[in-house]
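Entry type: protein chain
Record version: 2
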Amino acid sequence: MAEIPFRDVPFRAGGFAPRTIPFAGAATLVLLLALWQGAASAGLVSTRFLPPPIAIARALATLAASGELWGHLSASLQRFALGWAMGTAAGLVAGFAIGLFTLFRTPGMAVVSALFPIPKIALAPLFIIWFGIGEGSKLATLAFGVFFPTVINTVAGVDGVPRTLIRMGQSFGLSWHAIVRKIVLPGALPAILSGFRITTSTAVILLVAAEMIGADRGIGSYVLQAGNLYDTEGLMAGIVMLSALGLSVAWALGRLERWLLAWR
């Protein structure tokens, strides 16, 4: 009987592992800005309605020199940080309570299902009646908008933990608290952190909307004033500030994910 020759078999179990290309994101943004500037210089884009990047940079430089840039940014950052932290903390507590305890499961999900579809900015007038035109109503708008997505992602993360791991922990005699701390919380973290990316974007949107209602300082207030004055360069400068805020938060969340999920 003839021997079957041996041959190398290619490795096919590489899995789906997309890699991050260093500086590719920055290069893409630079290319888009260059195309935008080139189109404006060539007259393909009306600078009256869409100012070129150089004009926007000059407007930002003017704002920075006058001190207005830091005043608007600091006011918005404080509101963003406080509102997001309040909504996230409450959402995590409620999400774990719904995900872990039968007593809160059905009533909690009923409340979330009833209130989550309501546009949060539509409740801003009600929050103004309750908390006044000052910071209280703005923080309540942000916290309320962040709360429900945090609850939903936390419950989904807890439900997504393999029950075989929980049963294994129980069979080894781990306490309830140890199972939650060592099995449930690490297993739910990816879904919770993904929810953070959604809630930070939601918070930025609600921040702008809340600051357009009765705020003297903040990026949303500045954008509204620039729009009322038909100052397109200032308007785009405000949008650039919002984009920079979003990019900074996304970068911070990426660092947090790499730190908390290093065990994977």
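Comment: The chain is about 75% helix and 0% strand.
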